[in-house]
Amino acid sequence: MSAPAPVISAELRQLLRRLKLGRSLDTLPERLSLAAAHTLGHADFLELVLSDEVSRRERTSAALRARAAHLDPKMTLEAWDPGAKVTYDHAVLDELVSLRFVEAAQNAFVLGPVGVGKTLIANALGHIACRRRVKVHFERADRLFRRLKTARLDASYEVEVRKLVGTDLLIIDDFALQRLDATETADFYELVVERHKAAATLITSNREPPEWLAMLADPLLAQSAVDRLQSAAWELVIEGESYRQRERPAVLATTVTPARDRRAGAT
Fold first, then answer.
1. Which CATH number fits domain 77-246: 3.40.190.10, 3.40.718.10, 3.40.50.300, 3.30.750.24?
2. How far, in Å, CA of 173 to CA of 47, rounded?
3. CA 237 → CA 32, 208, 258, distances in Å?
4. Do residues 188 and 170 touch, judged by C-beta distance below 8 A?
5. CA 84, CA 46: separation in Å to the nearest integer?
6. Using one digit for the tens of pLDDT, what is the confidence trace for 70-93?
7. In 10 A of CB 225, how many CB atoms?
8. Left, alpha or beta for 134 (phi > 0: left; psi -120 to 50: alpha)?
9. pLDDT at position 233 over 80
10. For residues 89 and 92, what is the distance between their CA atoms, to the nearest angstrom?
């Protein structure tokens, strides 16, 4: 027969809440039972309870930072399927996961065809950075440049650019999916130049960097921006089967004959 759960007095509950430790009540009964079962000393028990609270606050803080960074909450490294039919350099991915490229203000390109998991990897690296209290901003390329165009109209352009330049890890997803016009090219050049050797930029694309040159309106700005990005960049190339094909729901075994075919076959 198991021992009854420890009773938490109203006075203790009130004290914990006044100290902003009310959430520790979620695990306190289990920790009290564990302390009794293992005869933990007072100091060890206090360390255990406070460790729970620190872990909880760090998780909450990381989740808030990830939300502010516009990261997909489901796209973490744990969601990466090791059985996916794709090939890539595992050593390069391990290096990117270490975030040393962020500390060194270097860049990273995640390249490959549509659907192989580039966006998932980019989000996953963003989540790791958020857990390490790195300032992250994730945005799809077309939305980013559209937002900067809109900012020009309401005189908030300089504010928006400063935010993007000031983030530790800027993630631009689906870059060069379509051709950039003159304004978008100028904005891209501005971001690259201002962040060069000062902060890390991660770009996902289904085109190789040399192909980006043809997707930018101004050849000179394009060459200058791409050259700066490539001068200190890791490249993770993912090739293989589309991730999305494996996420499709299973097809029902029983097929339904279209009504027109049933009518044609009627006698």
1. 3.40.50.300
2. 42
3. 50, 9, 44
4. no
5. 44
6. 999 999 999 988 888 999 999 999
7. 23
8. beta
9. yes
10. 5
